[in-house]
Specification:
This protein is of the alpha+beta class. Helix content is about 45%, strand content about 10%. The protein binds iron/sulfur cluster (2 copies).
């Protein structure tokens, strides 16, 4: 019945509005196609699982992360966390304004933020890797914004992986964008994301997500519960008080206030990635990778050799749709 209120709208209109509102990148994915191709069929998180009515187009919005903090090398620098949190807040406001605009035209719409995880999936284990309702990097690939890299981070031609994403679901009758089929990633021959990772979480077209979570959410729920457990189990009253007043507790408090260090954290793999037009502004600061080791280099050599034999890991095959086809001379 909402159809009678609807004003005509085109994909260009939607994208123009999103850019006017401040989005740096915008693409539109086909919700039905995403329903048919969930990134993890064993745990499908599809647009139709969020809404049975307003899922037919998935508008993916991106805001770039600022270059100044990418040039700060320490992964745990709190200035980085705060700057990124501001980018998330800004993009969430842009998404909400886009929703209101669509609804004024007669199209009900819903935001999928980058920070909201499904509480029904939580199994009383603070270290459990939690995911958003929809995988936003996969949605961005479906919307034509880029492809996934060696550690499954989204790479865009404009800003490489240095973007934050949201999605707006709405059943608009507009032309969706097409997925890019050729990988943007330079593969293990580059491997800079693996070399820079402080958690050593980067795998061959995969990521050890629980290991990564300790760094990308350093003052999140896992840290909060473990620190409170430490305080509670301390029998010496003076030491208990010191733990309560410690720097860790101070950082937890600050992180709870704004989400900086909870919904933002390590992004070293994104900072050092040479893909993206913006990298020229970063290169001089990020050329040297302090975290690199001989063991990491040897693992990359093994990956390159495996690819030369066309011996790609199972995970690549499962994710090929979003990683894209590899260009041998670039990725091996
Ligand atoms: S976010 Fe940090 S810990 Fe996670 S893969 Fe990237 S560099 Fe590694
Ligand atoms: S740093 Fe290199 S290997 Fe890693 S995602 Fe970027 S291009 Fe791919």
């Amino acid at each position: 019945m909402v159809g009678i209120f609807r004003q005509p709208v085109s994909a260009d209109d939607v994208k123009r509005k999103a850019r006017e509102l401040g989005a740096d990148l915008v693409g539109i994915a086909d919700g039905e196609l995403m329903n048919r191709h969930p990134p993890d069929p064993a745990d499908p998180r599809r647009p139709i699982d969020i809404t049975e009515l307003d899922y037919r187009r998935v508008i993916v919005l991106a805001k770039r992360l600022n270059s100044g903090v990418a040039r700060i090398i320490a992964w745990g620098d709190r200035t980085k966390f705060y700057n990124d949190e501001l980018a998330i807040s800004t993009l969430e406001e842009i998404s909400l304004e886009l929703v209101y605009w669509l609804e004024e035209l007669g199209y009900p719409a819903i935001i999928v933020p980058p920070t909201h995880v499904d509480p029904w999936r939580y199994q009383d284990d603070p270290r459990q890797h939690m995911t958003t309702l929809l995988s936003l990097p996969h949605a961005a690939v479906e919307a034509g914004l880029g492809t996934l890299g060696l550690n499954l981070q989204l790479l865009t031609p404009e800003f490489g992986p240095r973007v934050i994403l949201t999605a707006v679901l709405s059943s608009l009758d507009v032309e969706p964008d097409r997925r890019r089929t050729e990988s943007l990633c330079l593969g293990p021959a580059c491997g800079r994301c693996l070399k820079a990772c402080p958690a050593d979480a980067v795998r061959h077209w995969d990521r050890d997500w629980p290991a990564c979570d300790e760094y990308r959410s350093p003052y999140g729920f896992a840290k909060l519960t473990s620190h409170i457990e430490t305080v509670l189990s301390e029998s010496n009253l003076q030491k208990k008080k010191e733990l309560l007043r410690s720097e860790t507790m101070f950082n937890l408090w600050q992180s709870i206030l704004r989400g900086a260090g909870v919904i933002t954290g390590c992004r070293r793999c994104a900072d050092v990635c040479p893909v993206g037009d913006d990298y020229q502004m970063l290169a001089d600061a990020l050329e040297r990778i302090e975290e690199d080791t001989q063991a990491k280099q040897l693992r990359l050599v093994d990956m390159v050799r495996a690819q030369e034999r066309n011996d790609l890991p199972e995970h690549y095959n499962a994710q090929e749709r979003w990683i894209g086809s590899l260009i041998p001379e670039k990725s091996a």
